[in-house]
Amino acid sequence: MARIVVLGSLNVDLVVTVPRLPRPGETVLGDGLRSCPGGKGANQAVAAARLGGQVAMIGRVGDDGFGAGLIENLDRNGVDSSGVDRDPAAPTGAALIFVEAGGQNMIAVAPGANAVVGASDAQRAAARLGPGDLLVMQLEIPVAVVERAVQAARQAGAFILLNAAPAQRLEPGLLSQLDALVVNEREANALAANEREANALVDHDDPSTIAAALLTLGPKIVIVTLGPSGSVFCDDTGVHRVEPFAVKSIDATGAGDAFVGALAVGFARRLPIETAVRFGNAAGAAATSSVGAQAALPGLDDLRRRFGVDLSSSEQ
Ligand code: ADP
């Protein structure tokens, strides 16, 4: 199986449940503080490792207690954490989350060490990649670093998967270097809208049309995740819809990260694209059926038991 290198963010999520969200200047008493590992990069690394991937994480945390906890969490989940640097000059990234009893939330993110991930980290990621290995990235580290890593990974002959989340403007040319682009519907619309300004890209809300339009920007495969409606993927064979798995969904946090982690494992095992996307759908669905980002990430046994999805029978 090919190796998976995740270059991306690590955060500690600090969560307090409150009877109602505070107004400006107001103090509201909540319940006890929960601190959970998060950050899209770390979530995706853990998602892939729980599903049997051989995963290494490259990123930065602060030289503080939160950072030590995040590294320990990677180790516990079987992710190689030796590429996570403890930066003496920046604090560990943190998300401060208020959750109202009704489910509404308010989030402020302090990117901390994620914001100082730099060119040397892109090189460190690429140094771990051989031909056919996977580089997985998101957009919670500086885009310039993502661009640098794409160049270096191409030279290494690696397969490059970008989850363009959270949505932001990308330099023209970056998309054309990707093997796979993964976005949710909102991010797909944002990317297409940006490109529409620059080029005469089709103005249409239908996800299949948007996926096809994004493919014209250069990625070899475009995948748009559609929450409870599953996903679509588009490659040179056309646009294909992949049906969702039915679940009683209680918390959508981390569904996209579960999807990307599972997809990466599917690609690392050289599964046909449709099988890999279906595997992503199963992991995404499972992640919505319990609370939290990483706590809800499934293992292979969960997916086999719940959805009858069995990778061993489809490995090539
Ligand atoms: P994000 O978390 O990035 O917004 P999505 O909400 O699109 O991503 O979820 C990722 C994937 O997880 C979807 O493509 C789908 O397969 C699965 N998924 C998400 N929500 C549900 C749900 N309510 N029921 C079934 N599958 C879901």
Distance linking N and C termini: 10 Å
The strands making up the biggest β-sheet line up spatially as: 5-4-1-8-9-10-11-12-13
What is the H/E string?
A: EEEHEHEEEHEHEEHHEEEHHH
Rounded mean pLDDT score: 94
Silhouette:
globular
Largest sheet descriptor: 9 strands, mixed
Number of strands: 13
Q: Tell me the strand percentage band.
A: 15-25%
Bound molecules: adenosine-5'-diphosphate
Structural class by sheet pairing and helices? alpha/beta
Low-confidence stretches: none
* Rg: 19 Å
- Residues in helices, as a percent range: 25-40%
Any chance you could write out the topology, listing elements then pairs?
Layout: E1 4-7, E2 11-18, E3 34-38, H1 40-50, E4 55-62, H2 65-76, E5 80-87, E6 93-100, E7 105-110, H3 119-127, E8 134-137, H4 143-155, E9 159-163, E10 180-184, H5 185-198, H6 207-215, E11 221-225, E12 231-235, E13 238-242, H7 255-268, H8 273-287, H9 300-307
Parallel strand pairs: 1-4, 1-8, 2-6, 4-5, 8-9, 9-10, 10-11
Antiparallel strand pairs: 2-3, 6-7, 11-12, 12-13
Helix pairs in contact: 1-7, 3-4, 5-6, 7-8
Bound molecules: adenosine-5'-diphosphate.
Description:
Helix content is 33%, strand content 24%. The model has no long low-confidence stretch (mean pLDDT 94). The strands form two sheets. Strands 5-4-1-8-9-10-11-12-13 form a nine-stranded mixed sheet, sandwiched between helices. A four-stranded mixed sheet has the order 3-2-6-7. The chain has nine helices and 13 strands. The protein is α/β, with parallel strands linked by helices. Adenosine-5'-diphosphate is lined by residues 184, 225-228, 230-231, 244-245, 247, 249, 252, 255-256, 259, 281, 284-285, 288.
